Amino acid sequence: MNKKFQGKVIRGDGLGRKLGYPTANLNWPPKKRIPKGVFAVRVRVLKKNYPGVAVIGIPTVTDKKPKLEIHILDFDKMIYCQWLSAEIIKKIRNLKTYRSKKELIKMIHNDCRKAKKILINSAKQ
């Protein structure tokens, strides 16, 4: 797939952090053509590379406009206003809505596990 995108990290609504999976929300033009879904990504921020999971589109019932947010795996720095770039390695799944926060957290956990596996395998190639 190998589609790249970049943008400045902005404040979101904080739901990811409350669920234990903080995200870097990117300021990006909604007209820019980026595929929608959940993806394993390679992230570059603060002059370092990290594995991550990107959610692109309208991720929840309460959201009205598309978002581009990335959970950077094993990362806990505040990066508001920093420039971030990412490369999509592989799509994990399509977006869907959830009946409960518990169900959402379980799916995020599975997405992170799948992304790690995908990224490890892609590095071996």
CATH class: Mainly Beta
Terminal Cα separation, in Å? 15 Å
Q: Please outline the major beta sheet.
A: 6 strands, antiparallel, barrel
The proportion of strand residues reads: 35-45%
Give the number of helices. Answer: 2
CATH homologous superfamily annotation: Riboflavin kinase-like
> Unreliable runs, pLDDT <50, ≥5 residues?
none
- Helical/strand content category: alpha+beta
Rg calc: 13 Å
Structural summary, described in words:
Helix content is 22%, strand content 38%. The protein has 125 residues and is of the alpha+beta class. The protein has one domain: Elongation Factor Tu (Ef-tu), domain 3 (Beta Barrel), CATH 2.40.30.30. The protein has a 6-stranded antiparallel β-barrel. The radius of gyration is 13 Å and the shape is globular. The model has no long low-confidence stretch (mean pLDDT 89).
Summary?
The protein has 125 residues and is α+β, with helices and mostly antiparallel strands. 22% of the residues lie in helices and 38% in strands.
Topology:
Blueprint: E1 4-10, H1 15-18, E2 24-27, E3 37-45, E4 48-57, E5 67-72, E6 83-93, H2 101-124
Antiparallel strand pairs: 1-2, 1-6, 2-5, 3-4, 3-6, 4-5
